[in-house]
Amino acid sequence: MSITADVLNTLKQVVLMNDKIERLEKAADKQEETTLDLRERVIRLEAFIEVARAAAHARALPPAGG
Amino acid sequence: MITTADNTSRMASAERITFLVSPEEKRRLAREAKKAQVTVSDLIRGRLFTGPNDDEAQVRALLAEVLASTQRAHAAADRMLERAGTFEARAREREQAARRAAERELSGLDPIALAAGLALTPATTRRRKGGR
Asked: Are residues B102 and A47 in contact, defined by beta-carbon separation less than 8 angstroms?
């Protein structure tokens, strides 16, 4: 293989790698959005459970002065 | 490919150079000349004395593409690094907003009914129910 062919092949590899980086950015965007969405859903569930547990605990307390 | 300049150069050629090559080099010269549809002399003159040959043009074109795609890749990598650096702060902001939204939503619900719905009845109540 001539030096020119080697140079062309190497340059093509660089172009392909650059393309992969750009596609990686799009994939990272999607993953970030998925992660943020999951964290929001956990927060919502935590809030529900906290309120429900507080209500259950208050119900279990003996009446004042009893 | 022979240009007008090549023809002019050819017409003005009056000197002869003889040089030795290996049989493989001779075959390669003949092959390249046939591929370019020129004589071996024109091929050598063309490679040495005229503008950029096909290989150089290809390399230059690809270099321009490499430069442009590398600049785009750099920009993409910079954006990714910037977002990674601010991810936690943005996540906290969205979580706080989600918590406020959940609290607003829960303020309209009956907490006792919610606890019952989630089977979070107190242990004492469950014991009493079991005793009956």
From this structure: yes
